[in-house]
Amino acid sequence: MTINISCLSKTYKNGTQALQDINLCIEQGIFGLLGPNGAGKTTLMRILATVMGFGEGKIEIDGLDIRRDIYEIRKIIGYLPHEFGLYPNLTLMEFLDYICLLNEITNRNERKKRVTQAVEVTGLEKVANKKLKTFSGGMKRRAGIALCLLNDPRIIIVDEPTAGLDPEERIRYKNFLSVLGREKTIVFSTHIINDLENVCSEIGVIDRGKLLFNGYPEDLIDQVEEKVWVGTCGVDEIAMLSEHFLVVNKKLVDGGWEYRIVGEQPPFATSRTEEINMEDAYLALMRGGA
Ligand SMILES: Nc1ncnc2c1ncn2[C@@H]1O[C@H](COP(=O)(O)OP(=O)(O)OP(=O)(O)O)[C@@H](O)[C@H]1O
Known about the structure:
- By secondary structure, the chain is α/β, with parallel strands linked by helices.
- The protein has two domains: 3-220, Rossmann fold (3-Layer(aba) Sandwich), CATH 3.40.50.300; 224-289.
- It has nine helices and 14 strands.
- Strands 6-7-8-3-9-10 form a six-stranded mixed sheet, with helices on both faces.
- Helix 4 packs across helix 5 (137-149).
- The relative contact order is 0.14.
- The structure holds adenosine-5'-triphosphate.
- Residues 12, 14, 16, 18, 35, 37-43, 191 line the site of adenosine-5'-triphosphate.
- Belongs to the ABC transporter superfamily.
- Residues 3-233 form the ABC transporter domain.
């Protein structure tokens, strides 16, 4: 299962160019699209989910052309937008059964099979007969995935799946996606770097409509040639640091500021190097892209 995107551009009617010449190949596994607010993530997710058209470019999913074979593609895709509605007074089982009916699955046994399977895969058996209004944020997100699974799609596209989740729920949800990703191709977007760690087989970084990076998560770190420097400095020096270096972190401590910066050279003779992490690499990439 491969998604091939070539020379994709999208300009909204008001003239905003949301995507510019995107070239991307997404293979089987879990693909994470990282970028700040307004980068173009939702636009790309919606185009891939076939709910939005685009100007220039070509997208092929499993060899099918997204313009020509739209109905075929819809059969193999499940899409969970950033915001979606659940019927609060229905139980999860009732809700999923209702959605099956809307999709004209009239055979009761077939509906039961699909609903039971979706509930099992998402690990929601224990709450399957509880009303959706009693679900936590993480459970609602999993219920959303259950909804996507009703048609047994091969690709699942999820926009900002961890937004609004607390740290524990975020970890649980990440683990859940990892397990699901063994059988399905999952494409998800996020603006949180931690969401990608230990989950994605490949990632893309997007900013202002341009794809700045595509590859393995560890390659993002490798491609930053600069180093990370840490140390403590005085109040006057911290202003100089902000002006000349990429400050990843700074903290007021007794006797000055603790800093973490990215740069080719150490800012001070007392600076020490530290191993670069994903966050350093991402910020360095964003600064280069800007
Ligand atoms: N319907 C629209 N009409 C005009 N401009 C739009 C529309 N939707 C999005 N945009 C603009 O397109 C750009 C990309 O928006 P998009 O929602 O794809 O970004 P995003 O990365 O998903 O951001 P966020 O993380 O804030 O959701 C932004 O400049 C946004 O303001």
